[in-house]
Amino acid sequence: KRQHVARLTLNNPTKHNSLGQGELEAIQAHLQQLSDDAETRVLIVTGAGDKTFCAGASLKELGAGQISGDCFQATTDMLAALPIPTIASVNGNVFGGGVELALSCDFRVGVEGSRMRVPAAAIGLCYPLSGINRFVERMGVNLAKRILVASEEFRDEDMLEIGFLDHLVLPAQLEDATDKLAQHIAGLAPLAVKAMKNILQQAAAGGIDLEASQKLSEACLASEDLQEGFAAQREKRAPRFKGR
Q1: Which end of the chain has fewer surrounding CB within 10 Å, N or C?
Q2: pTM value?
């Protein structure tokens, strides 16, 4: 963690940053810490190396019964539910559950020359139910069919065109582009950012809890941050938000 930005790196490049039981449990522990951390305002998730962001769950451990799809889904569910904004810094190719891991983040920055594919149908696997729901929520049912049912491969420009990637940059520019986006978001009013992320997620899931959402909105209206935002506008300076 550096100031208000945390970075989680999947560090097993020789195995395409695939995730076994140990890695998944470690990620869950870090995400739990972040959910209780008032100082961190943005999380970046990236992979080590320059070939693969993540190849999903370890096929070796899946085949040996050492890991279940439920553990992987619990991890992506925790990532998606994190109250702070998350950025997937997609440093290379992204396969299988790694695609869902990236989709569980709020924003995705990818690199030229990369490709994406979920090969579940090609190996006879029905993708886990909550994962299918996430694909539909984030990409829409028609694109979800192309990704899952047709097991279509997407190249870098295709990933940008369909909305899987928000930004596409040269590999040498990835870290700087991701950091700039993270710093920009970290400089915004934390209460407003969290409130709007929460409400947008409710809307994507099919319905907004009006009472709970109204309370989130009212908390922003009554916050010191709002007064600081107004003062910064008047004084023509950068705001200094404190998250309260």
Answers
A1: C
A2: 0.93
